[in-house]
Amino acid sequence: MITTNEQQPVAQRDADHVHQHEAEQKQAALELRDVSMSFDGRAGRLHVLDQVSITVQAGEFVSIIGPSGSGKSTLFHLIGGLLRPSEGDILVHGQNVVGQTGHISYMPQQPALFPWRTVEDNVILAPEIAGKPKKEAREEARRWLSNVGLTGYERSYPHELSGGMQQRVAFLRAMMSPHELMLLDEPFSALDALTRSDMQRWLIDLWERNRRSVLFITHSIEEALLLSDTIYVLSNRPAQVLERVAVPFARPRTEALASEAEFVRMKRELSDLLRSIQSSSPIH
Amino acid sequence: MSGRRIAKIGPPIIAFIIFLAIWQAGVMVSGIEKWMLPSPLDIVQEAVSNGGGLLMHTWASVQLTLIGFCVGTAVGLLLACSLHPMPWLKRAIYPLVIVSQNIPTIALLPLLMIWFGFGLMPKIVTITLVCFFPVCVATLDGLAQTDRTMMNYMRMAGASRSQLFWKLELPHALPSVFSGLKIAGTYSVMSAIISEWLGTDKGIGYYMVLQKAAYRTDRMFVAIAVVILLSLAMFGLVCALERLLIHWRRDNKQG
Questions:
Q1: A5-24 burial, b for 16+ CB within 10 Å, e for fewer?
Q2: Nearest-CA distance from B151 to chain A in Å?
Q3: A183 beta partners
Q4: What gap in Å lies between CA B54 and CA B193, rounded to an integer?
Q5: Where are the alpha helices (DSSP H) in A110-250?
Q6: What does the buried/exposed string (b/e) look like for A64-73 if buried means 16 or more CB atoms within 10 Å of the residue's CB?
Q7: Which of residues 48-87 of A touch B (CB under 8 A)?
Q8: pLDDT tens, A208-253?
Q9: B167, A130: Cβ pair inside 8 Å?
Q10: Cross-chain residue pair A112–B147, CB shorter than 8 Å
Q11: CA atoms within 13 A on the CB side of A74
């Protein structure tokens, strides 16, 4: 829970946040306890999640990887309160939030910026929903935008930005949320390889300066290793946690990490694991 | 921008001028009687010589159209916005909304006059009945098509029902609302004219009835030209409003 920060305005707020939870010290930002989920569909009962337990410590970056269709998005909808789990508990900062919305900050796969709002007004959406005064939020948004090299785009509309810039704005929108825990749902999957590696570097840098608690869904093993403190590997449907991998690399991290022997070894191990899951998957 | 604009407006204007020229030439060559088919020049001449009275009638129709359009739009929007959050009510009312469009205006007008008298009221009810429909249907469709990802984002962020509506659903539906408004704008002129056929002493509709009785074909054409111009003006008005309100889509639309 380090919030070392020089001129970040949000650092203060994050510090408050941390302070607020100091009483419940060592409390996880997110705790999934044996969460199971099944849907009743036309083709009978569809079992999606099976006793999934995941913990995100405060200030920890946790990734989830797994085969496609393993219910990762369902997991996010459960944490976000859009769905209720069939079994199990979901705790955000110690509070049971099963079936409750408005406890997390979320960044979807598509940037899903509101086209009728300027960049600045998009970024302040979450504080606006939470009922924070707009003026303050705008000032903070402007500081953030200049921090990530989007000065001059405050009054632009999303369609005037490139894909990578839109993702940055979507990420800032999540950052500006008053909720400390961030859920990032494959945020870079729609970007081309070059922009993607740019965005990864950008995200590492920004996150290391701010240390929010993050739960990150990705398909890319390299991305997960590069960014995370902990990686959970999910199985095929019904998804179970197959493995919990602690990522030992020191921070601050750079892309050079990707060529280190240990990184390469872990990457190969995880690829083998994923491939074995994939090959055991039922043919659709 | 202006070059682009000319490229966009140019072809239809040229086509229209050619159409008028052929008409003019046809009338002149065939020597058809003026009371059967007047030439475009005859019509313009008649419009100019009849200027004062025509202007008065046009102005009356413009007023009626604008009032009717505004009331109709308001009713359409209100109905759509109140039906949207209540799916069961929407299911119940929607067929009635459609049925309302199957009643012939001509049959309804005399009834409305019996109920509401000869004043402004039956006319506004007529225009409203015609205009609310496209606005209501387009708005309901727009509201139903809200982007799923944005919706999930808003809900996860803890947005309330009213925040969902004002911050997401309504602005998201706005382009669709304007599709309905464009139709309503054009219809409003026609329905205003029809409502003037009965129980009034001014307006282009009344003017048409008079000229019909006098077999003044040329003046009928003048009336038709006025109706077309008014419809175009209403359409333009809605488009201008759209550009003003939906500034974020301006660039996408041309693509």
A1: eeebebbeebeebbeebeee
A2: 9
A3: A106, A215
A4: 14
A5: 119-123, 125-129, 134-147, 163-175, 193-210, 221-227
A6: bbbbeebbbb
A7: 77, 80-82
A8: 888 889 999 998 899 999 999 999 999 888 888 988 999 988 888 8
A9: no
A10: yes
A11: 22
Q: Contacts of residue A120 in chain B, CB cutoff 8 Å?
A: none
Mutation for A interface: B148, B150, B151, B153, most A CBs within 10 A:
B153
The predicted-structure confidence for A74-108, as pLDDT tens digits, reads as follows: 899 999 999 999 999 999 999 999 989 999 999 98
What residue in A sits closest to B164 (Cα-Cα)? Answer: A129
Architecture of the domain delimited by B35-254 = Orthogonal Bundle (1.10)
How many other C-beta atoms can be found within 10 angstroms of the C-beta atom of residue B47? Answer: 17
Neighbours of B110 (CB within 10 A): 12
Helix (H, G, I), strand (E, B) or coil at A264: helix
Give the integer Cα–Cα distance in Å for B232 and B238: 10
Q: How many CB pairs under 8 A join A and B?
A: 66
Strand partners, A216: A63, A184
Q: Taking CA B170 as the corner, what is the angle to CA B164 and CA B175, rounded to the nearest 5 degrees?
A: 145
Nearest CA among B140, B23, B31, B48 for reference residue B85: B140
Q: Which CATH class is domain A28-104+179-284?
A: alpha beta
Contact (CB<8Å) B155/A114: no
- Nearest by CB to B156, which of A104, A109, A128? A104
Residue among B157, B172, B247 minimizing CB distance to A126 = B157
Beta-bridged to residue A54, according to DSSP, are A32
Contact yes or no for A181/A30 (Cβ under 8 A): yes
CB B147 to CB A106 under 8 A?
no
pLDDT(B255) > 60? no
Could you identify the residue written with the tokens 């939906």?
B246
Residues of B in contact with A77 (CB under 8 A): 152
- The string of pLDDT tens digits covering residues A170-209 is 989 988 888 899 999 988 887 888 888 888 888 888 888 8
Query: Who contacts B123 (Cβ-Cβ below 8 Å, separation ≥6)?
Result: B64, B68, B192, B195, B196, B200
Is B167 close to A129, i.e. CB distance below 8 A?
yes
Distance from CA of A142 to the nearest CA of B (A): 21
Which residue, chain included where needed, has tokens 């079992």?
Answer: A47
**Distance (Å, rounded) from C-alpha B214 to C-alpha A30?**
84
Burial A215-248 (b: 16+ CB within 10 A, else e): bbbbebbbbbbbbbbbbbbbbbbbbbbbeebebe
Residue in A101, A121, A180 to test binding to B, most B beta-carbons within 10 Å: A101
**Which DSSP letter does residue B247 get?**
G
CB-CB under 8 Å, B155 with A80: yes
Query: For chain B, which residues make up each domain, given as ranges?
Result: 1-31, 35-254
Residues in Cβ contact with B9 at an 8 Å cutoff, skipping those fewer than 6 apart: none
Q: How many CB atoms lie within 10 A of CB B85?
A: 14
For the question of an ipTM over 0.85, the answer is no
